[in-house]
Amino acid sequence: MIRLDHVGILVRNISEALPLYRELLGLTADPPVELPEQQVRVAFLHAGDGQLELLEPMTPDCSLAKVLAKRGEGLLHICFEVDDIEASLRHLEAAGVSLVDQHAWTSPHGLVAFLHPKSFRGVSIELRQQVIRGSKQKRGTLQEEKAQPTMLALSGKTKVCTSLGYPIAQSLSPAMQTAAFRARGLDWIYIAWGVRPEFLAVTVEALRANENFAGGNVTAPHKETIVPLLDGLTREAEPLRAVNVILRDGDRLIGHSTDGAGYVAALREAGYNCRGKRVLILGAGGAARAVGVALADAGVAEIWILNRTVTRAESVARLLADAGFSHVRVGPLAEAASALRQIDLVVNATSVGLQKEAPPLFDYGLLRPPALVSDLVFFPRETLFLRQAREQGCRTMNGLGMLLHQAVLSFERWTGRDAPVALMRHALLEALEARERNA
Ligand SMILES: NC(=O)c1ccc[n+]([C@@H]2O[C@H](COP(=O)([O-])OP(=O)(O)OC[C@H]3O[C@@H](n4cnc5c(N)ncnc54)[C@H](OP(=O)(O)O)[C@@H]3O)[C@@H](O)[C@H]2O)c1
Predict the structure, then answer these.
(1) What's the pLDDT tens digit per position in 225-256?
(2) pTM of this prediction?
(3) Is the Cβ atom of 334 under 6 angstroms away from ligand 1?
(4) Do the domains 157-257+403-438 and 2-129 match in fold?
(5) Measured from the CA of 403, which atom of ligand 1 is nearest?
(6) CATH, domain range 2-129
């Protein structure tokens, strides 16, 4: 079922907007809007119970306003609420409608997807599906997946994916990947394997010997130590000498990395184009390396790497230079003040947000807009680092988008199928909420 949720008007020229508003929507009342020039470019009208009601005007820097302003050609914005956004998107895609972004993503209102205005004679269309928290009021495909665990029928042909780590009990990947396998009707399962370091070699041998093993993930502490046990690395993993994905190629197990690409995909999803940007990476471990290489690939202008242990930062700089990117500066964390004066994007790739007792990396009062401030940690969702950045007016991003998109890219490599991104996000958030409740 589809309901009209609200209508928005991108006011560049209200006289152009009004006929569209009347003709396309069949609405007779003039929109009750008086918009200050330039100041507020988008206003929302709520169309419910035959009433039109002016909602909170959108500020120019809110994400939808940015999407509309960037796109320019859409004067009208119409939002529909649907029961099952995945099904609606599949249906629309089959009918040749294109999406603005590749995927539906989570906003404070639930799952949203923007359909390209060209598909609708210049009108911008948004689909929205409420993400219902808790398990009782669920409806639609996402909920059916949850409500019917027996849909997962195992067979002798069931393909097995594993995640290797230690400890692994808190992993959110089984929830995401299982939801995705089910949604795509695949006879596949995903299981977390807690493997102590001394058993890693024998575990890799067992996976190689198991013809049902279709691929897997690798997490701490095995991302680097597994490399010599594998039969090769992909182009993405080769410079990093660290992997978070295992691909199967006949009898060969190939290491791959989707962490960095996952981070860049999360940025893109947040509407952030990193091309030409000056980046500060805090930390010089495996995640910093993966993100650094992916950002260099994505066309950033300059990368600063500051780390507690400067020699590790220098080795990341060498890695980037070997990959053909030489606009790198390194130093100790004490150089944060001077770096931050020149920076557009901050990536906290240290694990300090996980450590309850750890002192701040530096005075977080130095984090100022317009920098986008991100932390790869997602549990807690808002680290002290992100909280202070937000309180000082910075836009912030935690590590959940990276976690989701590295999983999306893993799924697509293993299965050769498009990942059901909205569903995976939903499963991820549910699993995270469960983890938070039990913490
Ligand atoms: N969102 C995701 O999908 C995702 C994916 C991968 C990783 N991550 C997160 O990213 C973080 C880094 O992971 P990693 O694999 O790169 O870990 P890692 O290889 O162990 O590196 C840890 C980094 O943090 C620094 N560090 C640790 N404790 C510190 C402290 N108290 N003060 C200052 N610096 C400190 C280390 O500095 P030294 O070099 O001086 O020791 C090092 O640079 C972790 O929190 C991990 O959970 C998230």
Answers:
(1) 999 999 999 999 999 999 999 999 999 999 99
(2) 0.72
(3) no
(4) no
(5) 3
(6) 3.10.180
